[in-house]
């Protein structure tokens, strides 16, 4: 599977910049990147994409700690949306609290919990896993 779009939902400009650099460095990861600084902005944009009949991003990297609407609140709202193609959501957080990791796995839509920072090796492994899932 070729990943067309990745959505980053994170309020940390350094993380966003670094992730975009990694994704652009290895062009085989995706074609475009959408960035939202908080969950509410992301919900509004993704909901409007659904209403216009547009394809949602293939992958969402979701931070937990953000202003306005945090990652947990985003997930609680996102699972209520009428989705035909469900994006792969990866929580990407600096939290190493086992309760956060356990809570993340209670959401069927969450594929994995990744501890920041992202690296080229982590992204390569993640995309290899996605390719293997699509072949199976």
TrEMBL record:
Claim: Hydrolase is one of the keywords in the record: no
GO terms classed as biological process: phosphorelay signal transduction system
Modification sites for 4-aspartylphosphate: 63
Keywords annotated in UniProt: Phosphoprotein
The UniProt record lists the keyword Phosphoprotein: yes
Listed SMART domains: REC (SM00448)
A Pfam family annotated for this UniProt entry: Response_reg
InterPro entries reported for this sequence: CheY-like_superfamily, Sig_transdc_resp-reg_receiver, TCS_response_regulator
Signal peptide boundaries: none
Source organism superkingdom: Bacteria
PANTHER family found in the cross-reference section: RESPONSE REGULATOR RCP1, RESPONSE REGULATOR RCP1-RELATED
Stated name of the protein: Response regulator
Organism, scientific name: Maribacter polysiphoniae
Species classification: Bacteria, Pseudomonadati, Bacteroidota, Flavobacteriia, Flavobacteriales
């Amino acid at each position: 599977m070729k990943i067309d779009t990745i959505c980053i939902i994170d309020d940390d400009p350094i993380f966003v910049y670094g992730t975009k650099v990694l994704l652009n460095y290895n062009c085989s990861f995706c074609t475009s990147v959408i960035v939202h600084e908080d969950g509410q902005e992301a919900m509004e944009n993704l909901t409007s994409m659904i209403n216009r009949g547009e394809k949602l991003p293939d992958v969402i990297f979701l931070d937990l700690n953000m202003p306005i609407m945090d990652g947990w609140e985003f997930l609680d709202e996102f699972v209520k949306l009428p989705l035909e193609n469900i994006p792969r959501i990866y929580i990407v957080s600096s939290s190493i609290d086992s309760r956060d990791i356990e809570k993340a796995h209670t959401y069927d839509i969450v594929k994995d919990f990744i501890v920041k920072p992202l690296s080229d090796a982590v992204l390569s492994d993640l995309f290899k896993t996605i390719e293997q899932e699509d072949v199976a």
